[in-house]
Amino acid sequence: MQTFNLFPELFSYSLLAPLILRIVIGLVFLNLGFLKLGKEKKGWISSLSILGVKPAGFFTTLLGLVEIIGGFLLIGGAYTQVAALVLAVISTCELLIEYEEESILKRDMVFYLLLTAICASLILSGAGLYAIDVPML
What we know:
Blueprint: H1 16-37, H2 41-50, H3 56-76, H4 80-100, H5 109-125
Helix pairs in contact: 1-3, 1-5, 2-3, 3-4, 4-5
């Protein structure tokens, strides 16, 4: 089957796409994790309390640490699919919370949908170039 592509020579760089996604999403999750442990901690504790999650302080700290560790794993390309899976579950939960009650979380629903989609892409594609993960051929 013949297809039309404007830039077919770029297909040889297809392993760069997961690298770009990995770095960007890793930095985003690092930022989100540090915010949960820093200046947004009180807001997250309040939000989790409203949702009935107890002890809210413990789970806010745990959530922040998981996002930070996951962000570092993604940036380094270590256990990429596992990290992306865990972060996709977190993003999906935050997406559902935002869908049900917009006032609880600070970010837009589209933001969490985008995070979930990028994580799903990394689960399917793997780490790409410059990663500790090595694809099995």
